[in-house]
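Hi Q.,

Before the meeting this afternoon, I wanted you to have the 2-acetamido-2-deoxy-beta-D-glucopyranose prediction in hand. No need to reply - just skim if you have a minute. The sequence and ligand are here:
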Amino acid sequence: MFLIFYILLCPSSSSADTPFPTVSHREMPLRPAILTNHQIMGSAMFTTPIMVIAGTRGHTSLSDLTLTLQTVLGQPGVQNKYVVVVYDPRHIPDVFALSRLFNFSSKAIVPQNFNDTMQYYEVMQVVFETAHAAFPESPYITIVEAGLLLAPDFLAYTASLLPLLHDPNILGISAWNPNGYLNVSTRPDLAYRVEDFPGMAFTLRMDTYLKELRTKMKECCNRR
Ligand SMILES: *[C@@H]1O[C@H](CO)[C@@H](O)[C@H](O)[C@H]1NC(C)=O
Ligand SMILES: *[C@@H]1O[C@H](CO)[C@@H](O)[C@H](O)[C@H]1NC(C)=O
Ligand SMILES: *[C@@H]1O[C@H](CO)[C@@H](O)[C@H](O)[C@H]1NC(C)=O
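Predicted structure with the ligand bound:
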């Protein structure tokens, strides 16, 4: 189960919006999809770091990661320089080379003691710090767990909801609906306000991390 809310913002959706590779795409260079939806052009979402987390729990395969990265690259308006793959090279080697194929950055994370297992909150801390160091001006951060297949409108959906993050009562925008099966998703224009935090593929204010989470990652953020 992968996807979630469909928001159809773009009535004249063109072929540039079709991210999923087919056989005829095999020989094509890996290029980001082009944004044709004028309503969301200029959204901060297109300059928000997208941090893809891979192999930190020992169960992402390189092929799963490849599929995830294809769906990231397929987001209309995505820019390579904002995509960073954070990975544990003990569990998933070769990510550096794979990320270069996509022209994404990558960052290997290993604990100080090579044999230690990193807790989820420690991984998240590195992810936030890496994004903040690389993109200090960015008010937002997007986190995507490898193994997910993003719906083609993931970025458009988040861009259109991004203004909601001005409301301090809203913690984040998640693209994951655990009940979001296609057979029960009849309202493409509907987003839910929920109390829990589904994680998986979400966008937060960087300030939320810096001011509220940073010093208590272990307490707040050790569960997916
Ligand atoms: C890779 O991305 C950089 C921006 O980060 C861009 O300047 C460069 O042209 C891209 N290279 C290719 C081969 O697409
Ligand atoms: C890690 O574990 C291996 C095998 O169990 C051991 O040989 C090695 O010394 C350990 N390394 C560290 C830094 O503890
Ligand atoms: C929708 O699909 C899911 C997954 O296949 C299934 O578990 C569920 O029963 C379906 N619901 C309805 C209302 O058909």
